[in-house]
Amino acid sequence: MDNDLVQRKTELLEYTIGGQQFWVHSIKSARDDIDIEPPKSESGTAPSDPACDAVGSPPEDADPPVDFKLRLAWQVWPAALALGHHLATQFPGGHWEGKRVLELGTGTGILGFLMSSLGADVILSDVAHALAVVEANIRVNKDRLRGRCAALSLDWTAFDEADFYGRVAAAWQVPVADVNFDYVLCSDCICEGLYLWDAFIKCLRSLCQGNTRGITANVIRGKEYECLSAMADHFDMEQKPIVDPPYGLSLDMPVLIYELTGS
């Protein structure tokens, strides 16, 4: 997945999350699938991304359709917006300054951008073939990010902890021994029939050691309760309410937020 495909298959939209605005490349062909309406821009023209702009605009049929899982990844979903609202409003002022945050299944990266704008150092992770949009979105939003923000591949069905921590150390330019996370964030990482729950839980357990806390948000569409029940076998889970959701955040389908600590 390269920049010219990002240019052809996505559109640049402005979203509000946690009270802040970010521009993200979002998949064009999936617009009818998403259950939130992107807000109209309040700031006019979208920022330019030279790496994408340079390739021009080939015909739409120049590539085969983007595969289904990638179409899901390249959207902004209500669970991410709900979790962003929770993280921005339900922690003390300045809480995220200097925190180290890992996001699993980052998709467009918008949740991680919010955390970086609040001062956290962030690793945005997803499967390798989904990272082109994340990297493009980092470039577009670079002036709004305060903490370090890097995109790295992570496939929880084949998670190699030593390899991943080594790549984090290289991205952050710190010794491997100094790599740790205060929080691991996941929004809509549980999706019935698409992802292996046991592999996801195993990866999450590896990452949430010691003082590392996990925070998950998920729209409940069907069998997600089964995964949440399995997670409760390995974590102490505390459900968090969505307090004063902002205007325009669609909660037609329930979003459940949980804070996790190792049990």
From TrEMBL:
Gene3D superfamilies according to UniProt: Vaccinia Virus protein VP39
User: Which residue positions does the secretion signal occupy?
Assistant: none
Supply the Pfam families for this chain: Methyltransf_16 (PF10294)
CDD domains assigned: AdoMet_MTases
**SUPFAM superfamilies in the record:** S-adenosyl-L-methionine-dependent methyltransferases
Region of interest (Disordered), residue spans = 34-62
PANTHER family noted in UniProt: HEPATOCELLULAR CARCINOMA-ASSOCIATED ANTIGEN (PTHR14614), PROTEIN-LYSINE METHYLTRANSFERASE C42C1.13 (PTHR14614:SF132)
Name of this protein: Calmodulin-lysine N-methyltransferase
UniProt organism field: Eutreptiella gymnastica
**Lineage of the source organism?**
Eukaryota, Discoba, Euglenozoa, Euglenida, Spirocuta
